[in-house]
Amino acid sequence: MAQFISESYYQDLHELQAIDFVLVELTLYLDTHPADANALAQFELFQRGKKNLVAQFEHRHGPLYHYGEGKGGAGFAWAKGPWPWQV
Amino acid sequence: MWVYEKKLQYPVRVSKCDPQMAKLLIEQYGGADGELAAALRYLNQRYTLPDRVIGLLTDIGTEEFAHLEMIATMVYKLTKDVTPMQLREAGLGGHFADHGYDLYPHNAAGTPFMAPYFAAKGDPITDLYEDIAAEEKARATYQWLIEMTDDVDLQDSLKFLRQREVIHAIRFREAVEILKEYNDTQRVF
Hints:
Chain B: It comes from Ferroacidibacillus organovorans. Chain B: Ca(2+) binds at residue 59. Chain B: Mn(2+) binds at residues 35, 64, 67, 135, 168. Chain B: GO terms for molecular function: metal ion binding. The complex is a heterodimer of chains A (87) and B (189). With 87 residues, chain A is mostly helical. Chain A has one domain (7-81). Chain A is 59% helix and 0% strand. Chain A is built from two helices and no strands. Chain A has helices at 7-32, 37-61. In chain A, helix 1 (7-32) packs antiparallel against helix 2 (37-61). Chain A is elongated, with a radius of gyration of 15 Å. Chain A starts with 6 loop residues before the first helix and ends in a 26-residue tail after the last helix. With 189 residues, chain B is mainly alpha-helical. Chain B has seven helices and no strands. Chain B has helices at residues 19-25, 27-30, 35-45, 51-79, 84-99, 124-147, 152-186. In chain B, helix 3 (35-45) packs antiparallel against helix 4 (51-79) and helix 3 runs antiparallel to helix 6 (124-147). The longest helix of chain B has 35 residues, at 152-186. Chain A binds chain B through residues 13-14, 16-17, 20-21, 24-25, 27-29, 31-33, 63-67, 69, 78, 83-85, and chain B through 3-12, 53, 55-56, 59-60, 63, 69, 72-73, 76-77, 167-168, 171, 174-175, 178.
């Protein structure tokens, strides 16, 4: 459980959390404002940004998603820590 | 179907062990206006609501699970290194006797989670007013929790959760207006 976690893990995680915040916020907004073309364009822009960040994160730190949504990772890295509450 | 992301929605850091605070925070884990109650309430209501607001209930309900994980992380980090005697002194002796170091959904006073927290009346406007109230009550609880700790790291995470309640309440208010318009168009003159 107690394992070394690099500084870059925290930096990359922070970037991912920041872009996800925008996407969660825009998702809820679009749920009640589906005709707002500007918000939809912003959503699609950040969605592309997230794809790049996820690929970079998974390459450096291991899988973020299960059930085939992300990479299994060598030695099935998905099922290895660190888990979110351990960092 | 849900897909899990191996990360918290927002960072949770604590600067000290504080089992007393963990005992208070558990209110937002298994209490009436906690994250578990919110998640299950919205995800239960959505099946019978008009299509126009199902997406919102699905998305807010799902975000509540991310908040539940943040609260669980706070409680875990605040208690993982304390001794059973320290837990007892913090008023968590009853918890430890039954659950050890496991988390358990009860409120700050120790009452276990209950299904009546779901609130499902079968009337869409009534249910959404209930949801607005739930978000406002959770916002107030987060404010009281913030005022009961001097741990600035913990306060930072709690402030994030407090602000999410504000946004959810705004979106639910908009959903009420959408339903009112929908009801008007359904009326035959």
